[in-house]
Write a structure and sequence with these properties.
The protein is mostly helical. The chain has one domain: MetI-like (MetI-like fold, Orthogonal Bundle), CATH 1.10.3720. It has 9 helices and no strands. Helix 1 runs parallel beside helix 9. The longest helix has 41 residues. It starts with a helix and ends with a helix.
């Protein structure tokens, strides 16, 4: 397969696969954020729960991605072949950086600011919503950035369990020992990761509190 063939594949099949890849990443990071950010805000105030939650998340992160995909497949009501199982695995990988950065952002807030808010009569929910969340926003955004870029790379393995995405080209190229087909999947994934990193980096800098 020559370079002209790669361009043809990208136009005919690559764009739908790119859409599938973006869908996998967007859904998994969104779900991880919905779970990880509130949990991070909650456990930041409790050293005991913080150690337990981060320990579990760290343990999940050490499982090789392909092994995790394979482990989820036979599980009833959870596993199976397809995008759902891929998203579940990607959520687990995106969860840790989001949780950890949320906790770090809250812990780095000046205690005097928190004490002043409490002295003004703020409830716990008001403290989280009006003080901790805005001041930790940049750190949280950094976690989302790491989770997104990591998920873009990990999502290529989703093709191994029928999850679709750009990994279809990668695995097809490996099976046929065709470097151009591998490149047809790997190059767009790399460019997507760079674009996401640049875009979220801009958002992260804008989240800085003056």
């Amino acid at each position: 397969m020559m370079f002209s063939d790669i361009l043809q594949d990208l136009l005919e099949e690559g764009l739908p696969l790119l859409g599938e890849h973006i869908f996998l990443v967007a859904v998994s990071v969104t779900v991880a954020a919905i779970i990880g950010i509130p949990l991070g805000l909650f456990i930041a105030a409790s050293p005991r729960w913080r150690a337990i939650a981060l320990g579990i998340a760290n343990a999940g992160q050490t499982i090789p991605s392909l092994a995790l995909f394979g482990f989820l497949i036979p599980l009833p009501w959870v596993g199976g072949i397809g995008a759902r199982t891929a998203i579940e695995a990607l959520v687990l990988y995106a969860f840790l950086p989001i949780l950890r950065n949320t906790v770090t952002g809250v812990l780095n807030i000046d205690p005097g600011i928190r004490d002043s808010a409490v002295a003004m009569g703020m409830t716990r929910s008001q403290l989280v919503r009006l003080v901790e969340l805005p001041l930790a926003a940049r750190s949280i955004m950094g976690g989302l950035r790491i989770a997104t870029v990591t998920s873009i790379g990990t999502a290529t393995i989703a093709a191994a369990i029928g999850g679709g995405g750009l990994g279809v080209f990668v695995f097809r190229g490996i099976a046929s020992v065709d470097k151009w087909t591998i490149l047809a999947g790997a190059l767009p994934a790399a460019l997507l990761a760079l674009a996401a990193d640049a875009l979220l980096g801009i958002v992260e800098r804008r989240c800085a509190v003056e």
